[in-house]
Structure formats: structure tokens, C-alpha cells
Amino acid sequence: MQLVIVESPAKAKTIEKYLGGDFHVLASYGHIRDLPAKDGSVDPDHGFAMQWENYGDKGKQLKAIADEAKKADRLILATDPDREGEAISWHVQEVLRAKKALPQKVDRVTFNAITKQAVTEAMAHPRALDEDLIDAYRARRALDYLVGFTLSPVLWRKLPGAKSAGRVQSVALRLVVEREREIESFVPQEYWSVAAEMEQGGQGFVARLVRWKGEKIDRLTIGKEGDAMAAKADVEAGRFTVEKVETKPVSRNPPPPFTTSTLQQEAARKLGFSASHTMRIAQQLYEDGAITYMRTDGVQMDGSAISAARKAIAERYDGGYLPEKPRQYQTKAKNAQEAHEAIRPTDFGRDKVGSGDHARLYDLIFKRALASQMASARLERTTVDLVDGTGQHALRATGQVVIFPGFLALYEEGRDDSEDDDSKLLPRLSEGDAPAKKKVTAEQHFTQPPPRYSEASLVKKLEELGIGRPSTYASTLQVLKDRDYVRIEKNRFFAEESGRLVTAFLERFFERYVSYDFTAGLEEELDDISGGRAQWQAVLEAFWRDFKPKTAEVMEQKPSDITAELDKFLEPMLFPPKADGSNPRACPLCGDGQLSLRGGRFGAFIACSNYPECKYTRKFGQPGGSEGGADTGPEVLGQHPETGQDIVKKSGRFGPYIEMGEGKEAKRGSIPKDLPDGELTLDWAVKLLSLPREIGLHPETGLPIVANIGRFGPYLLHDGKYGRLSSTAEIFEVGMNSAVAKLADAANKGGRGSSSREPLKVLGKHPRTEAEIKLMAGRYGPYVTDGTTNATLPKTIEQEALTLEEAAQLIDVRAAAAPAKKGKKAPAKKAAPKKAAAKKPAAKKAAG
């Protein structure tokens, strides 16, 4: 018997169909062991020896693999064809060796696609484990461990609120933070554009002013309204004739098939997928045999695949769409050993696979790969110059027309940020023509700061800088989100306060280790290890020799000294010069105190030197002295009419709140979001402190109905069931009849009460049952519901990327797995132990 080990059960199921009865395929379910999260897992003093530990949840699977390995004549390690796949195979081999279960013959096979031809071909050409790739894996894993477990404790002790740092993670965060700084320091510049709406032969077009008073006009030339109006008047007064018509043929070649990086970028642009969601769906497509391996730096396609693509093009389009010779693309990856074939369909005769996000991503991969072998697009770009009678003023119109679409008939690459695209069609114009001038406009504009990074543009930037590797980008960006160092709004990365502070700390005290050149250089050294050009322990030794003393030096400093250094380092951002020349550090509350950066239990903030007399504070993340979120200390709103105690408004970690009393006896209440701070009066404070409000006893059950504010907003509660209220004001206004009606409505619509809260998203109607599906925030995380069945959203699916089809599938699976009614299931449960015991030997006998 020959035992084959792969990563996933889906992959095992697929390839077992292609092998004979002598093969038994088992899945390791990914990595089976790792460095334990404790000191000493990597020992720099003894050749960077590593102490590996089996994952606790893999015990059952490892036992099954070991039991089968003892009976096997040959072990075939068929994990993914990259560094991580090589590492999993190595770990399996080492664990079996330790268990004395390793067969005498061990082979390694790799295939770039899970098809019968690829698998059988790989089985016929086995090899040994690639020691260079294993060394590269060990080097990266040790390096990430040493950085994380050496640097993170420094952060925890010296920078309250910081969570972790990482070799690539921190550099990616620096990119986001630096872009935030660029945006904040950006000073918009006013400029004006002048354009004429013209018409020739009944077809309209727009010509913009490019020369005025004999001077060339650039984008920022006209900077004042007065000049713009004068230019507009000159254009209105002039009679413009065509001076020159220039037509140029333009050719556009198709982009190459996808690599890991370009797939992540394009899926983000066109499908709105996060990098992690893209890789999860691509992994499943690969394991189902639909596409080739999705972790690759290569852009080349196998010769047989190119032939299949050309055949598919010939069948779909006429001969003009198929170039005479096949297109060959060259990879730019420096590490050829890890560069595989591009991501492509395994069968170009299959233009659709699956449904939902799987179908959408496959369609993108299919079209990109097919288009890469299609003919170039031919376009014609026309430029028309129009001059007035004086020769002092000139207009220009540009247009573009597609003569032959070529690959554009199937696919056009997306762009991260929109650019001016003069692709409008112009009327036929000749020298001497005088088009009719219909209207002249002068529009005001302002220069815009650079856009915040999207997932696509950030992945592209990381790749350009040579930081990290495409296969790790998804997990790197996910860590930044999980640590709350960044947030995503409208598919753009915004740096959170904690992320900005961590970046400032690392730039000030560990500048070398978050520099782009150093990180990229280290990546090259790691690639040299996988290529057999460097020794892994020597690379680690060179890094550790400088890194360890630096961390020890920073650890010895007092937190107050760290804060003082950060105060100086961040001064240009936190306390920039004021327009009136006054002291930017002067306290706006007391007047004579000086503002500076302080460290607190929940992170950094700006405070006055006259504390505790002056309680002025400002959030760390408010650059330039913005006072919008300044906290001037506790504010007494007045005395409670019944108790006579002060009601005080305060600011806490989770926002503003009100408090009455002190210590354990104090009563507190959050200030609702639909009640702005400016509207918080003493009357409102008294009302909020009186909650919960009992409306009365339910006329049917006799149990109380209560109105209150919860995590998800205002609500009604009766007998453990909830109903939603529309506003904070309604808590104090809703009467018994209305409350009973709202609770009944919630019970009818929401099943288990899901409609008692506002859905995060309404996804649409279930494609099979027509029930409306909603995404909800639950106590244990987000879930989807159709009003009858609730299904928890797996961690592998991001809320932003969830589709209607995926939600419907989750609900269908959950409904199918739901237990039978208690009355029917109980007898089976009681009888199960004896029946199982009686049947077990018989089952074994039958199997034999």
C-alpha cells in the first residue's frame, strides 16, 4: 500500500479518484506543528535550534496518518508546490520519524494543477524533499518568531495599548500611516480650467484651453477666478478654426495571466474582494481541479495550455483575434525556484465553474488567461488644435476610437484610481473647419491629496518595494485589521491611533527594521536561501547580532523617557506652527500650561502640563491641534432633582458617558449616538440614568415589558424576547399598545428575535426559498438569517465580501444539519450505545 499525504480533504478526495486502488490518500489539514508561543522556541545561542510542537487539534489526524504509515510500503508527500507545501511535507516526515512510523521509501511529488494528467505525471517523476526550500521556511519562521517575541514585549511595556509588531506587518502599516500623514499635511491648491462645448456636423465635443495670451496653459497655470473669467471671455469672443488634426495609431497588448499578486489586486478592483477572501476562494477552486496553483510569481503558461487557449479563441472569435504566434511572457520573480506557472484554468473549454463568488473569481481568471493569448487591440487617437483669429488663444480636443478590439472584446484590466481618459469619439474635422461654439465654461478645482491605499494598491506597493511575498500579503493585511491598527472604510485603509503610535515608536527606536530598503534586502537574502545561494543560520546570525542589542537598549529606558522622545519625534504632526505665530503647545484651556504627549493605560493622548489643576486632554490622533475631540475634563451638568447629587459628563475609553455618585455606588450611562453632545441637557441625563424603564405588564403574559439601551441601540424586552426601537427618544415615549405591537412584529418576522436589531446588511431574497436574508451582529459574532434559520458567518468569510449566494448556502447547510425534533430523536439517543457496540465488529468484518 502507498500512502499519499496532501493538505486538505478536498484535495485528497479529488486526487484519490485519479490513483489506483493501491493508493490511500490522507489530509494533514494544513500545517501539523509550529513553534510554540513561548520563550525559547528558537535558540540563537545554539545554531537557532527550534523546538516544534504538534497542534493540539491535530492529534486524531496525526494518529490516523501514523497508523496508515506503519502499514505502508511507500510514503508519497504530495503537498502544495511551494515553500509552505515543502515545509508541511517535511513536518509530516519528521513527526512520523519520531513516532518510528516512517516507511522505508519516502518520495516527494508536486503538481501545478489537480487534474488526472498532472497528478499521474507527477507520480511518475518523484523527487526528494527540497532542503533549500525547507531551510528558507525555517529561516522565515525563526525570523518572524524572533522579531515578534523580542519586539512585541518591548511594545507592551513601553507603549501602553500596543499589541504586536512584525517583520512585514509593521512595514505595511508604515505605508498606511505615511499615506495618512501625506493626506493631513497636504495643502490644496486652487486652479481653474476653461473649456468650450463645440459642435460639428451635429456631433458635440469638448475642447479645453491650452494656450492663452500666447502662453502655454498647464493644469495649475490659471490659479485665480479673475484670470479664469478673463480667459473665458477671450474664448467666448474668439472665432476658432481647426489648425491641425493629428491622428496616431495606438496598439495595446493584453496583460499576462494572473500571478498571486495581480489576482489579489484585480479581484479587489473588480469584485470588491479582500486579499484573504480571494485566496480562500482560489484555494477551493484549485482543490476542485478548476485552476492551477494560486500561489505563484510566474506569468508563463504551459505549452499545452497555450495551445488549448488558442483553440478556445479560434472557436469563440474569427481569425483576426488570434495572433500568428503564441504569446510568451517572462516572469519578473527573482526567485525562480518558487516561481511556478501562472494562475489559469485547467480546462479552457470550461468557461463557468461553481456559483456565487467562486463563479465570479473563476470567470476573472478564465478571461484574463484567455485574453493573454489574444490579438492586440488597435486604436486611433486623434488630437485637434483650434486657434482663434489672433493666434493668441488655442483650444485642444482629444479623442480615441477602437479600430479593432482584440483582447478588449473579452477583458480589460482595472485601475486603482481613475485617470483622465480621452476616449470620447470626435466628429470628423479637417483643417480650416470652424466648429460652432455652443458654450464656454470656467470651472474651479483644487488639487487632491494622494488617495488612501486600497487592498489592491497596497499589495501593488508592497510588491514594487520587494517587501514580503505575494503568498503572505493576505495574512499580513488581515493581521493589521485584527490588531485594530487600521480600519477599512469604502475599501480604503485608514490608520487608527494605535497604528500611528506603533509606527512612530518603531520609526524612532527601530528605524532600520521598518525601513523599506532593509526589509526588501532581507527578503532577497531569504530568497537566496531558497535558491541555495545562502546559508540560513548565517543570515539569521547577521540579523540577530544587531537586532538583539537594540531591543535590549530600548527595554532599559523608562516609559516616561520613551514618551518624551516620541513627543519630540511627533512634534511636527502634533504641534505644527500656527498661522498667527502663537505657541502651538500652549494649552487652549488654562492658557499658561504646555501641551505634550502622555502615555496612559489605554494608549497615548495629549495633556496639559498643569494637570491636575487643568484637565485639558486631546486624542493622540488629532494632528495640528484640532480641538474637535478635546476633553476639557469632567463637566457638571447639574444636580439630580431627587438625590441632589451632581451628574457629571465624562469621557472614557469607549466614548462620552454620564455619572452620578462615586465608587461602587456610582450610576453610569453611555451617551447615545443619536443624541449629540451639544444636546445633552440635565433633563436628558436624568432620563438616561433612570433606565431601564418599565412600561408595564404585558396584557397576555402578565410579565413586565422593559425599554432600555443596549449594545445595538434602543430596544424592548419581554420574557427574553426583543423588539427594536427606532431612537433613544422612543424609549421614553413608547406606550403599552405600541410596545405590544412591536414585540409581536419582531416575533413574527425574526424567528429567534433577529429583527429586534438593525441588520448590518440586507443581502436580498434567498434564491430558492424567496425569504429575505440579512447579515446580523450577534453575541458571538456576525451571522446570516432568513428569519427561520440562523447560520454563523465563518471566520474565513469577510462581512464586506459576503454574497447572497454564499449566505444562502450557509443557511441551507445549517438547516440541513439542524437536529431532528426532540420527540423523534430521544429514543434513538437512548438506544445508540448498545446498538453501536453490537454493530461495530460486524462492520469491521464486512469491511474485511
From TrEMBL:
Domain Topo IA-type catalytic residues, every copy: 130-551
Look up the record and give one Gene Ontology term from the biological process aspect. DNA topological change
Q: Which reaction does it catalyse?
A: ATP-independent breakage of single-stranded DNA, followed by passage and rejoining
Keyword Zinc-finger annotated: yes
Residue ranges with Gly residues bias: 622-631
Q: Where is the active site?
A: Y293 (o-(5'-phospho-dna)-tyrosine intermediate)
Q: Where is the stretch described as Interaction with DNA? A: 164-169
Q: Where is the composition biased (Basic residues)?
A: 821-848
- A GO CC annotation given for this chain: chromosome
Report the EC number(s), separated by commas if there are several: 5.6.2.1
Q: Which SUPFAM superfamilies match?
A: Prokaryotic type I DNA topoisomerase, Zinc beta-ribbon
One Pfam family it belongs to: Zn_ribbon_Top1
Chain intervals with Basic and acidic residues compositional bias: 430-442
Where does the entry annotate site (Interaction with DNA)?
H31, R140, R141, D144, W156, R295, R483
Coiled-coil residue spans: none
Q: Which UniProt keywords apply?
A: DNA-binding, Isomerase, Magnesium, Metal-binding, Topoisomerase, Zinc, Zinc-finger
- Which residue stretches belong to region Disordered? 415-453, 622-651, 816-848
Similarity remark = Belongs to the type IA topoisomerase family.
PANTHER family, sorted: DNA TOPOISOMERASE (PTHR42785:SF1), DNA TOPOISOMERASE, TYPE IA, CORE (PTHR42785)
Q: What does this protein do?
A: Releases the supercoiling and torsional tension of DNA, which is introduced during the DNA replication and transcription, by transiently cleaving and rejoining one strand of the DNA duplex. Introduces a single-strand break via transesterification at a target site in duplex DNA. The scissile phosphodiester is attacked by the catalytic tyrosine of the enzyme, resulting in the formation of a DNA-(5'-phosphotyrosyl)-enzyme intermediate and the expulsion of a 3'-OH DNA strand. The free DNA strand then undergoes passage around the unbroken strand, thus removing DNA supercoils.
Describe the protein's quaternary organization and the partners it interacts with.
Monomer.
Q: What is this protein called?
A: DNA topoisomerase 1
Question: Which organism was this protein described from?
Answer: Sphingobium ummariense RL-3
